[in-house]
Amino acid sequence: MPAPLGEARLYSLFDSGANLSCINPDFLDKLELPVKLGRKRNVYTASEGHFIEISERVSLDFYLEDVLLSDEFLVVPGLSEEAVIGAATMQKWRIKLDFEHDTVHVDPKVAKLQLKKQKSIPQVAI
Length: 126
Known about the structure:
The protein is α/β, with parallel strands linked by helices. The protein has a single domain (12-120), classed as Acid Proteases (Cathepsin D, subunit A, domain 1, Beta Barrel), CATH 2.40.70. The protein has helices at 87-92, 108-120; strands at 12-15, 22-23, 35-44, 51-64, 67-75, 83-86, 95-98, 103-106. It has a six-stranded mixed β-sheet. The protein has a two-stranded antiparallel ribbon with strand order 7-8. The longest helix has 13 residues, at 108-120. The protein starts with 11 loop residues before the first strand and ends in a 6-residue tail after the last helix.
């Protein structure tokens, strides 16, 4: 598996109405090479009868509250955001949206578990 290309700070929308996480293809050249999907998907938009054809995905690591998380993102041409974190990713990592304070949090139990895993993985300088 090829190494990641690099890192970038993306402004991400946490969207509980979107099932899957997505990324705008304009930012992939800084992050990771996309992989072709086995089958193309047609994802319908808010415009009646309009859909976008999705043919690629990418696996990405990302940080939230200094906790390393990862998931698969669909590459969506013309995506209005840099990235969208969908409900499946939020559920997987127990990410909570605090609408009262306009903040996003990782469940403390998940954060503690991830931090333990990171400490136990030996670091190798290359």
